[in-house]
Design a protein that fits this description.
Helix content: 40-55%
Oligomer: single chain
Distance between the termini: 77 Å
Number of helices: 13
Order of helices and strands: HHHHHEEHEEHHHHHHH
Number of strands: 4
Largest sheet: 2 strands, parallel
Strand order of the largest sheet: 1-2
Shape: elongated
């Protein structure tokens, strides 16, 4: 059907206050950031919805409607999209983010994974999944397990989990290693692992390891152990088979397994008090202390 559409070139007068931005000023201002190259300012398209001759009252009402009724896109959905869109990106940072997102999503899909169907995703059924996707992605990204970024060269420097062929081989290798590693805890401290995110009470200790914070902390611990064992014993983990990667850190992990076989309320609280972006890192420090005390 016809909507009486016409196309043309709109030219704004070179006059102060000839137009007002009701919402989205930050998008426009980003074009004038010092890190934005000139070519993007002149070539990029910035879609707008324009209105003519609105009263100030109408402008104010539009602003209120936009900012009170719009629905924010869930971060987990953005990570799921990036896992597919940026997996072969020429930008090293984008590629790393996509890779770690893909790996975590595959850990949730792989039936042999100790966290199979336990990650909360946009595709998950209601009430299915209790582990936060963003927290695991961030822990894996912050570690050097998949790789690190050489910003000057814009390259991804491979880590212990990186494959020797394409990105698919990296995902497969990483999922196998992480599954084998997490299985040390899900099997070794099964009763605690199965508590999941159960509330921690003085007379009834709750769960920790199989939670968002717990799994993220275990990822940080693996990164730390790989660095320590690699530098101490001159082992190049990237050259090892997946089973051998885990066998080289298993001895230290046994101390953590023993700790969580029958932890008290106070011992669980020792880990649960760590919150925010530094929570997994601080939890990893607690695990280091347990290993040192046991050695």
């Amino acid at each position: 059907p016809s909507h009486d559409l016409t196309f043309g070139k709109l030219t704004l007068p070179n006059t102060f206050k000839s137009a007002w931005i009701i919402d989205g000023q930050h998008r426009l201002f980003s074009y004038f950031h010092k890190d934005v190259e000139i070519k993007y300012r002149t070539r990029a398209q910035l879609p707008v919805v324009a209105f003519e001759n609105l009263s100030h009252e109408h402008e104010a009402n539009l602003f209120i409607d936009i900012n009170s009724k719009q629905v924010k896109v869930a971060r987990s959905l953005l990570l799921e999209l990036k896992a597919d869109l940026d997996i072969e990106s020429s930008d090293a940072k984008q590629k790393l983010y996509a890779l770690v997102s893909k790996i975590v999503l595959e850990l949730n899909r792989d039936r042999s994974s100790p966290i199979f169907n336990r990650i909360k995703t946009e595709q998950a059924a209601e009430r299915q999944g209790f582990i936060a996707l963003p927290q695991l992605v961030e822990a894996l990204r912050r570690s050097s397990l998949v790789g690190t970024i050489d910003s000057k060269a814009n390259i991804l420097v491979p880590g212990a989990l990186y494959g020797n062929q394409d990105t698919a081989s990296t995902v497969d290798r990483a999922v196998e290693i992480l599954s084998n590693y997490l299985r040390l805890f899900s099997d070794g401290a099964k009763e605690h692992w199965d508590l999941r995110d159960k509330r921690n009470l003085p007379n009834d200790a709750g769960g920790h390891l199989c939670t968002s914070l717990g799994v993220a902390t275990l990822i940080m611990l693996l990164d730390d152990l790989v660095k320590y064992v690699g530098s101490t014993f001159n082992i190049r983990f990237r050259d090892l088979a997946p089973n051998d990667v885990v066998s080289h850190v298993e001895g230290w992990c046994r101390h953590i397994v023993d700790f969580f076989r029958d932890p008290s309320y106070e011992e669980i609280l020792r880990f649960r008090i760590h919150r925010g972006s530094q929570g997994p890192h601080n939890g990893m420090r607690e695990m280091q202390a347990i290993i040192r005390d046991a050695e």
